[in-house]
Amino acid sequence: MSELTETGPRDASWGRARSVRPGDAPFTGSTALRSRADATLPERFRRSAAAVGSGAKMSTEDFAGWLAERSAAHPFRVHRIAFDQLQGWSFEPVTGNLVHDSGRFFTVHGLRVRVTEGAHDWQQPIINQAEVGVLGILAKEFDGVLHFLMQAKMEPGNPRLVQLSPTVQATRSNYTKAHGGGSVKYLEYFTGRRPTRVLVDVLQSEHGAWFLHKANRNVIVETREDVPPDPDFCWLTLGQLGELLLKDHVVNMDSRTVLACAPHLLTEPQALSSDTELLSWITAEKAGHQVRAEPLPLAETEGWVRTESAVRRLDDRFFRVVAVRAEAANREVAGWTQPLFEPVATGVTAFLTGRFGGVPHLLVHARAEGGFLESVELGPTVQCVPDNYRGHAAPAAPRFLDLVLNAAPHSIRYSALHSEEGGRFLNAVSRHLVVDVDTAALSTPPEGYRWVTPGQLNWLARHSRYVNVQARSLLAALNSGAVRL
């Protein structure tokens, strides 16, 4: 195991180990000026993306066996249960809200959403989890190549249960031990108690359709220390993570959103819109949408009913609230029960892509969702569950859905099944697609849509509340080299 290879005068940006709150900026004690940006950082990520065989600590061929071995090393079981079998959770007598006895973790209550544009008005259950979680990946150079410490983590809602998660994936209730369980491994690298260098740190939203104003810190920090991996952790390069993003149900949502915030591998000096024009368009979209979200008692949420084992819509569309019992010997708590949101069917998350003047662009959609802190964020071209728009009295299907579903095989640049965050959502699976289209017919996209380059989208993802989690999920495949446009 080699020490970090220096690629420039970076010592001033390393924080000292100290006792601080998560997120406190490191102070080096020096008043000397330094560069506002590290020009070496994109090249270091490109070098890591190119390291798939040589330069990697673990061969990609060995990874599947390692993940299977870690899955078999611990007993993992998840069972659906009725609501009256929940332990520590209950429906409040007056409001009907689903709450934890401790007052921590999260609450499921109702929400009324009014979107002025289009006169949309609906009610639904929503997860209210006010605390900010940490999604952190620890990085280290080996022989001049950045590696990332990833965890084989069980989540009760995951298909196949065990997927590749960040080094730290924890809510505040988790890392402050509200559950009474064990400590979160490697947390000290993200709380200032160990000297690290910040490569990425941005507050990002989660699912605006299911969370109310939820945000997580998406963090990558680099260490120089020798960090022997726990048996459930392994070091992988960015290129290896890109290869694993080509496979179904391997890299979890929390890893994907953090990787989306890393520097993009390529920079495009030209685009259809300047960065200033793009920011102006997004600002106009945010200002032009009025989204009013009003909390409601769950018991008074119109169009929804509660049975012994589910809170569901009368027409069984969109999603249900259900309950599970989970057992995982390697988690901070070995067994627990909890509610989960379960979509009714598999979704579609897709970017249309095309070239203008030889430069690749993605078609983004300014989406209004009831749980966003601001009115809209940029989402993929298509983001929906197609089954919700089929059958009698179904709402109109989203724009471009037919084009994506009927895409010719040769036009599909990327296709993989990925699930959403398994700690809150059960089997929330979407097919992630990148589809080539003829840009001649779409050179002027409809209102609410805009062509942006992958580099521009990545630039926005390095700032808070511009790019939604579904778009970031696809952007991770671009940032890691899994998709070449």
UniProtKB/TrEMBL annotation:
GO molecular function terms noted in the UniProt entry: lyase activity
Domain named dTDP-4-dehydro-6-deoxy-alpha-D-glucopyranose 2,3-dehydratase: residues: 61-261, 276-478
Region listing for Disordered, in residue ranges: 1-33
Protein name in the entry: NDP-hexose 2,3-dehydratase
Organism per entry: Streptomyces tendae
